Amino acid sequence: VQKLQRQYKLAVLFSAHDLNPLLGAMDRVLYLGGGQAVIGNVGEVINGPVLTRLYGSPIEVMHAGARIFVVPGAQP
Q: How many domains, in total, are found in the chain?
């Protein structure tokens, strides 16, 4: 999908409950949670503090090479 998007200069919209498999293909993210919305590039939106605020629960963002994983964090 990413190859076609770049080749034909297309806008691609994904709607998903699990973003982990899609994060490498995204340039920008609109994230909805807890009645709030955050929009920006992946680094601005997919990070622990922003997602923790949206969900009201601890969220950790882990990096393994070029891959990004969003996982529930430890409870305080």
A: 1
CA 32 distance to own-chain centroid = 10
| Residue recorded with tokens 């919209």 | 13
- Pairwise CA distance, residues 57 & 55, whole Å: 5
Please write the tens of the pLDDT for every residue from 14-68: 888 888 888 888 889 998 888 899 999 999 999 999 999 998 999 999 988 888 8
Q: Which domain holds residue 51?
A: 2-72
